[in-house]
Each structure stands twice: as structure tokens, then as C-alpha cells.
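Sample pair:
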Amino acid sequence: MSQGLILSIITVFVGTFIVTNSCWIRPIYFSVNGTLVLTDMKLLETNRHYKNGSLLVSRKLKLISFFLVMMLIISNFSMASDHVDGPMTIDHPMADISDLFVFPSPNNPENLVLILNVYPFVPWNGHFADRVTYSLIAKNAKIAHRGQNTAFKLLGEEKRIDCTFVTPHRKTNWASCVFPHGESIRFEVDKEGVKGNGFQVFAGRRGDPFLFNSSWFKELVKEGKIPKANTSNDMKYLNVLSLIFEINIAQVFGTGETDLWAIAGETTTRDSVNSPVRRIDRVGRPELSNARLAAFNKQTDLRDLYNAQDTFAIDPDSYTKFRTRMLDNINYYDNLDKTVDWLPAWRDALAGILLNDFLVVDMSKPMTVQSYFDIERSAFRNQPHTRAGGRVPGDNIINALFTTMINGGHGREVSNGISTYGKPAIDHFPYLRKPSRNPIAFIKSYLARSAATKLSME
């Protein structure tokens, strides 16, 4: 029996004991217009009394609500963005990259914000690994071709930000980061306001900003149906470990030939001091490995092979495997609406763009929400882009992903129903909300990882 399953069973029994043997509970329930709200579920309130800020709820309601939440968590968690994207990251959760965000600072157009999130569903005692290097990699870029031959050309040398950590055996934990302009800094984990020459940095636990409806996603990817939209965001209350930078791009990366930058993230390790560097995970555009390279009908799982590649220098033989799978899956998603939108030549161009797996951001354009894939989409249409591209926390990239794959952006939006309210969650550094610390977050993090691990391997 797996450790995750054992923990899930223990959690259910302990939770059942607590909710059935306690009359008073503190507000892990929230009252909204006379209705109890528990995570994303709304339950009718009955037999309520207030005393010293506590809420009395009938034992039957507590028992039902607890089991409903457990069932929701266990049954709904599947593959989320780059969360739990293959056997390797399941074995190394502290090196599992969940998301990458890149966007011009909303407060200073000369600054670039970079966010690398790792360790999805991190528990309260989770931490960065001391044998892993967490890196952000950038190259200057330009649009080499538009229309049916859309492609980017990478320019100049790589610019890297590499960070390592001290395993937290003491009260204060430390991070060290090295920047391409020769600066380095050692700073305390979870401490805000850390600044250096041309940058500020934060490393620590934050709320996961990814918007994800797992049952909707699973039905579309695994069952080949376009589900009805609903508003459930299963990432609510879940946390990640975040590396967040705001850099003056001219100081840290130098002046590029263009204002376009291609950005990727990766985690690497060495098995011993003299061993070569081994890549554990990498990320550029979201949902590349879990959706666009998904394995159907007992196909070979390519995710570990994909994650082991150098983003800017993929092995040619491996690239051929990825391209074949990508073309098959573009065709699979394109046919879900019973209409062919991606003709062969355009499908080839899309596969080529996606396999050059990096976020593209234009520093000459202001930050806007929902600008993910705007540069690539405009190039396909042979039009100039008007937004910065990249990716902003709170962007509903699942909608952008499947609208592009299913109808080429020519039809109605394919939507999971989660609203972004048209603005980023936080408009100042460190740009992500503080971590959830309530009991729901504690229980949900353990059960989510167990369920996501199981479903990711299906």
C-alpha cells in the first residue's frame, strides 16, 4: 500500500473522528449571505448558533461536508499545468516545476518579472532541496518568419539565474543565487524585501496562482469531450514553493538586439560531485508535457525524456519523437469539435513553435492580463502583436490552450468557466498571494499530491 494512500486513509479517519466528536469548530467554514462555503462547495446552513466567534453546526452536516470534500479532492485532482508531469518528478517532488510566469513589471517598464514555481501541493514542512539547482534561462530572440512558416530565431548567449538552497535543519533557511551580470546574493528563505544590484528576489512558500478545474480538464483530455464550463478552481488553498525575481533587464541580462526574450526554467542535480549535470524537470509554455504530449491508447510516456532535454538544444532523435506525438495530439484536439481547423502545413508550423518550448515576452509592450501566446498567435496571422505575451499569474491559460488547439482561435472560446476578473491577483512584488495556512490547505495538499500522482501515471 502506497504512503500516499495510507496517509489519505488516516486523514479521513482522523477527520471523521474530529468532525463527529466536536460540537464547536472554528471558521474553516465561511458564512456568505447565509450560506456555508467550504472550499469550492456551498452547503445549506442548518442549526447554526454563534458563541465567542465560533460556529455550531449539526454533526450530520459536518460529517457530510467532510466526506464530500475528501471525495472531491481525491477524485478531481489530475494533471495541472506542469504539476506532476512524469515519473521522475513524482520521485523528486522538490524539483518538480509547476509553473513559469514572465511579464514586464506593471510598475516599471524597464523591469522584467520572472516566477518559477516548484513542489506543487507543498505541505507545511516542505522545502527546497539542497542537491537541486533551480534555474531561469533566457535568450534574446526575434520573429524569423510569420504566417504558415512562423518561427523564432534565438540570438546571442544564454543568460542564467541559478539558485541553490541549504536543507532546513535549523530555524533559518538560506538561498544563494548567481546572476549573469556577475552579482550573487545569499538571503533568508521566506523573507520579503531582499534587493541587490538591479534586482529584487524572494524564495519561499506562496499560494499557487494556477487556475485549474481538474474534472473539466480530465474529461477533455482523457475522454475527448468538450465539457460544460463550471467555476470550480481546484487549486484554491494549495501552495507552492516560489522563486520570484524582478530584474532591470538591461543591467542583469544586458542590451539585446531586440526587445523579445525567450525564457525557460529548469531543475538540475548531480548524482555525485564528479557526475555530469542531470536535468530533472523543465518548463516553458504551460501544459506542454501533460496535455500536448499526452499518451493515448497505451503509447509510450515521453514526459521524462522530454523533461531531460536542454530547452535550447533538443537531441534530434528525441525531437522527432516529440514532433510525431505533438502532430498526433494536435489532430486529436482539433477533431473534438468535429471541424478541421489545423490543415497539415499549419499543424506542422504549430508543432514547431510549441516544441521550441519557452515563453516569449516583448519588453517594448506593457503588461496586460490574458496575453499568453499573443505573440505567437499574431505571427501566425501575419499581424503585429500588440501585447507583451509571456504569462501573468491569474491568466486562464487553459482556455487559451484549448481554444487554440481545438478551433485555432477562429471560433468560440473553449472555457473551463473560471473567471480571472480581468486583472492580476497582485500588482506589486512578489506578485503572488501569501500561502494558505488553514486546516483545509493542510489536508488538501496531502490528498492532492496522492491523487495527482496516481492520475498522472494513468
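The chain has two domains: 3-75, 77-456.
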